[in-house]
Structure formats: C-alpha cells, structure tokens
Fold this protein.
Amino acid sequence: MTQDLDPQIAELIEQLDSGFPPVHTMTGAQARAVIKSRFVPSPQPEPVHEVSDQKIGGPGGDIAVRVYRPDGAGLPILVFAHGGGWVFCDLDSHDGLCRDLANRIGAVVVSVDYRLAPEHPWPAAAEDVYAVVTWAADNASALGGDPARIVVGGDSAGGNLAAVTALMARDRNGPALAGQLLLYPVIAADFDTESYRLFGSGYYNPLEALQWYWDQYVPALVDRAHPYAAPLHGDLHGLPPAVMVITGHDPLRDEGIAYARALRDAGVAVSECSYVGGVHGFMTMPMLDIAGRARAEVSREVARLVGAARPVD
C-alpha cells in the first residue's frame, strides 16, 4: 500500500510520524500545550470579506465561535468542528482551512471552539456543536446566511461531532440541515479493522493516540455504543446528505467506508471523495498539492449540495 502514498507525503511521512508527540503518555493539558506550542500561524492569512470572533450561550457556558463571511447575503452556512482528538486544537489551528472553505464554497463558515476533553467528557463537545448549529439557524439573517441551507461539518474528531450533531438535529426536531461534511471522521471505537492493522503505525496518526483520544472523551466503554458517541451504531434514516472524505493511508479509513455504506443503506445520499494517497489530517497541510485538490473537490460537492451560486475553483 505504501507505493500508493502521495509523493509529496512520502517525502515527509517519516518526519511527520517521528515528530508527532506521544500524546498517549501525557495528560490532556500537557498534550494541548505541546500541540499549541508547535502551531505556527500563517503570516498572511487568506483574505475573507469579514472575519469576527463572537461568544454565544451554550449548555456549559459561553462558546467562542469564529465567523467567516464572504461578500453577499443569503449564503449557505457551514458550522465547522475542528479535529484534534476532542482534546486539542482550536479556532486558530483550523483558521486556514475555514477561510479556504468559506471562499471556495461561498458560504458563511462558523467555526466552533467546543469544550475539550478530558476536562469536559462526552457528550459535552457534541452538545456544544449542536448548540451552535441551533444558534446559526436562529441568527442566519444576521450572519448573512440562509437558514434553509445549513451544513454541519468537521474533520477527524470534528467529523464525529458533525455526524453526531446531524443525528441530534434529526432526533430533536431541528434545526433542519441541508447536509453534513465529514472529513476522515472518527466514527466508531473499533481498533481491530484492516486499516488499523495497516496504518496504525508509521502514518502520522498512530493507534496509541487514537485509543487515548477515546479514553479522554468517552472513558466509559459502555458509552461508546451510544450513537451520539459512535454514529455507526445509530439509526441513520432521515439524515441529511453527506459529503465524506475517505483517506487511503489512514487507520480510520475502514470506519469511514463503513459509515458511508451504512448511510446509503439507510437511504441517505453520500458523495464520497476518496484520496488513496493521503494520510489522516492531510487537508490541513496546505503545502500539499493533494490538499488543494481535496479542498477544491469537497467545496464543489458542498456547493452543489446547497445550491451555492458562487463558482468554485
């Protein structure tokens, strides 16, 4: 399988893998500090017509959000949950990706600074994302958005939160969602898949770290069977259409494929964007050509889903 690895990633993979901190030996706060210390913000962030930081009321207190608004009104809205194993990353770590998605889709992007584990275990993060989706629907006009065209999305652990939020919105009778954007999502706590065996070591997102993420966010094993923790265990009927990114060299590959299949079996339309040469998290690595292609393709699919008029390159 390694011969299919994207050439640019192949040149970096040893450096990426060896440089990934052993988070499974740390506390959540320690891991958060290490990841934060390594973050280098872009000296020239991609321009967006308007970017603002706000705070909204949530189930556990105020939730910080960052709103990216392209020029225009009545735009689609993408509520986005960042990855980071439910433990680390924040609004700044995914600022570049959110700016790019806002411009490419022509959508208002609302990035969510949800509560982090282990200080705030399951289902705190999911409840925060759901609260922001509800707020976005209630305040769509003020955001320059269209309440009938709301998509919930996220990458990795954020993809889990997006999938769970779609379930919550269905179960709680709203808000009505136009779609869900799932970028190599965490879907189930099953560490015995073929992709875990193939890619659980040496591909930047190791097995030990992934097990540790689940231990921080959903420490009780019994809770990991709940659909609001592991969406693959849920009834998926009546969910909004999904745009899903599957990454080839990723321990999470097989659970993503399984979720896409389960959604289709439940009658949910799925647009599957597969990147055989990618590794987990590659879309937040803008130096990679494959990341640019994925961002463009995914944005086109979301724009098509919500009927965005803006052309996407």
Remarks:
- The radius of gyration is 18 Å.
